[in-house]
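Need Translation initiation factor IF-3's 3D structure for a figure. Predict it.
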Amino acid sequence: MSPSALVKVGVSINQTRVRAIAKANKFRVNEEIRAPRVRVVDPEGQHGIYDLKTALEMARQRGLDLVEIAPNANPPVCKIIDYGKFRYEQQKKEKEARRKQHAQQIKEIRFRPHTDTHDFEFKTRHARHFLEDGHKVKAWVQFRGRDILYQDAGLDLLRRFIEALQDVAKIDQPPKMEGRRMTVILSPTRKK
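Structure prediction for Translation initiation factor IF-3:
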């Protein structure tokens, strides 16, 4: 529909834009609200229960939108606010919440059944850094070919690994065989 056709129908371009944004963000705005009676909170903080038509008229008189904030309440709670400003504040809060979240990663350390002492210490040091940074560590011993005969050596290696990191880690999953791998998962005892 062209902008001029919208104006002829009696709907302004701004109202259609507000409706499109509201649909995308799951908030009912103005005429989209279905409840016959709503609890209205106005910009000054005063509230009361009104018919939907009366509430919409109150919002129009102020040049603002009626936004359904709590649709599951009885009656639903609506606020008289500028919807664009409301959405901006919501997006800001969501962005701040995402920024404060820390996605924990699982770092992997790979061994062979007969890993040398220096290599073992080097990899254990790396695992310690990962755990101190707040990441989980998955250590695994890969058995290739005839190495499968040395499962005891792999288990001893993982036990030494757990002992070396017991001051900064706790066991999430004890050593167990998964196909041709023996794995253990450690998580940090305290977050950074």
